[in-house]
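Case study 2.
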Amino acid sequence: MSTEALARDAAPPEDPGYAMAAGELVAGLTVRPAGRTSASPYETGRLVSLAPWLPQHAERIRFLLAGQRPDGGWGGPEGYALVPTLSAVEGLLAALERDAPVGWSPDGVRNAVDRALRLLYDRAAGPATYPVPDLPAADLIVPALVERIGDRLAEPPAALADRRAAGPPPLPAGMDSQRLDRVRLLARSGRPMPPKLWHALEVLGPAARRLTTVTPTGSGAVGASPAATAAWLGGPDGSPPASVDYLRQAIAGHGGPVPCATPITVFERSWVLATLTRVGVPLSVPAGILAELRAALGPDGAATGPGLPTDADTTAVTLYALARLGQPADPACLAGYDTGQHFCTWKGENGASVTTNAHVLEALGRQLGDGGPRAAGVVRRLTGWLLDRQEADGRWSDRWHASPYYATCCAVLALRDHGGSSARPAVERAVGWVLDSQRPDGSWGRWAGTAEETAYGLLVLLAGRPSPSLDAAVAAAAGRLSGMDGDGDRPPLWHDKDLYHPGQIVRAAVIAARKAAGDRLRGGAHTPTDPWSALLE
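Prediction:
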């Protein structure tokens, strides 16, 4: 079939309903302001262990049993299985020791634990044999859970007695408990606990109970985390009603299991609006949402949600979305994250994020006209920093997402619109990598083809110079994406304490990619322009 025929067959009709789909998506931001994200095996395992007194305890145990993989693990492939598998095992061991088996089978739990332990002890293929992914607080969570599992196995439940001599599961190479020991010492000292640690407060175990240096938000949440909140409460007796209500609401969202982070209000809203407006999807955004996004921008920027520290990533995307919607805000709140070389995600960050800096580049690039020469200099510096971090094959990778297609998409879109002519070769190298890695069915994916990664791959291709091979790949990807359910095809790929899936954000990416591809295939390619890009040439 010719390229022209592929394009004709894949092209959406003149009125493909993108505005309607986007309108429904935006309406959902108001209906569920806390945001929508997938249930977490890690976080749910922590509630099984820490808060059996909460409603729907049996449903959480059944969720863990139903989510166990054939090999005995939980969570994603390779090293991504380590954190959720340790959490599920420790939680299920706690249930065997303590609970009356109401609504769940002790034999089923014992079998699940035994299978999981066999995987964790496997020094040839277990999750501890892989490099530990760059998940938040993994260097605290893993040693804390290994220690607790070792303690529980010192007196193992019936049918697990043979595990007593095995000791705790092995730690990954190079990992130890030194940082966990420092955090425990800090908690005992009475000195303030940095807010970035609140999200994983559960690593402290009983020492987290009503820790005076940690203050819940008005909604009762600690670190926007059900596990951290349950650890801080420590039990039902005398519990602050707001914190209990927060946990009940988190449980209600998934019928028992819980996500790693809730609420994610600003994160979800800003990413959805930025993604849709970037490709020109017409939107009618309620004035209340815009006002709340503006209000979220304090002197240090915005946070993903209440209880989490402000960060440059959420701040930048919020600024970009507001600017796209005709509500520009002062970007000065980003200044505190400027290290002089790049922008840190939060102050004191270990490492650096490609996607955070791509989003800062977009935010500043949109407002370059008001920033004058200084802003132009920062944009040039960020452009160079991103170019230096492109991998040899053309991709980028990042600490906030398991898939290089997300990082590559973020970098390419920022460099295309705001990087000037010096960035063009890097964009084309990225397009070449995406072309070369397209699957035979037209999709993309790190482990398997997914709607989310196919949307990112398609958006990268659309940043490239048209050619017969690129046009054919766009047509194939658009055709494949039209047959994929962006909500149902939902493997978790985003980094938190374990992998998660922010459904509304992913849905926005799918809508944006299909809209942009439709424009290209109908001959009206959407190529956003930056009125200040000439200053960078």
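The mean pLDDT is 90.
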